[in-house]
Structures are given as structure tokens and as C-alpha cells.
């Protein structure tokens, strides 16, 4: 079985990502698999026309979907002019709704063909804004894969509109949990012991 691999383009080399010679040189490295790639929350796939970007993303979307995960394949050109929900069928809309109320699941959005956005940069901005509105404040639980041919793309716009939020540290989480436990005990009329390590209000 043939397994697709990818090459990482360092951030400092993003200005070379539309140069054929640079992309060919990257091909000598071992590469990254889909499994490795999907560990990241924001992914940009750059390859020549006919390399199979659309097919690969559709296949990965189906694979995740069949596992019961929220995964959606969307044409960027369509997302630039319509809300995400209007682009989904009933089953997809239902799974999107279930994910929006979940606490831990990660949804994967494959946004295909930046290069086919034939309008202005404003249309790319609108597509990203439409996705942001659809995920409803769950950017930290959103994985986004964007595909394009080797043409300039404003990846800073993705960071601006769809950033990956910083996660709270384990210490912050434990302090909040301890405070909540302390408040619950007080509410139940159970005073805490003086030697307790709970955070006092």
C-alpha cells in the first residue's frame, strides 16, 4: 500500500514555498505521514496541480468520519460566499452540532483549494471568518487543513482569525478545581480543616 508523505516547510522559508526547485529539494527527506500531520491543529498543504491534494483530503475526511469523528471537507471558494452550515448535509450538520456542545472532541476541517479563490484576499478572510463563526469559540478543539498550489498565501491571516488558543497550565486547572471544591463544601455547610491545602476564597 502506498502511503502519502509530506515535507515540513520551516516558517522562515515560507516565502520559498511557491518555488518549484525548493519543493523538489524537500522531496529527498523521509517525510511526514498523515498520522503525524494531524497531530497539528493548523496545517497548510502545498503541492503542484494534479498531485492529489483534493483526493487525499477527501479520503482522510471519510476515514475520520467513519471512526465517528467530526470531520468535514469544504471548498474554500464555497466557504467564502456561504455559511458553513449551508454547505453541510443533514448528517454533517448534526455531527457539527454535537461537537459544538462536546467538551473534548476535536473537529477536523479540510479547506480545499486556496488557489481557486479567484477573488481578492478579502474572500479568503471571509472564508476564515465563516469558519470561525461556525466553530463558535472552540478554536482550541478545531483542526484545520488548508490546501493550495505553490502560490503566495497569507498564512498570517490564518493565525489572526483562527489562532490556536494557549491551554491553561495544569497548575491553573488544579487551583480552579480546588477552589470549586472548597466553595462547594462551604455551600453544603461543611467547613474545611485548618490544615487543608485548599485555596481559600
Automatic annotation (TrEMBL):
Keywords: ATP-binding, Nucleotide-binding. The keyword Flavoprotein does not apply. Residues 169-201 are annotated as: Disordered. Residues 192-201 have a biased composition (Basic and acidic residues). GO terms for molecular function: ATP binding. This is ATP-binding protein. It comes from Candidatus Macondimonas diazotrophica.
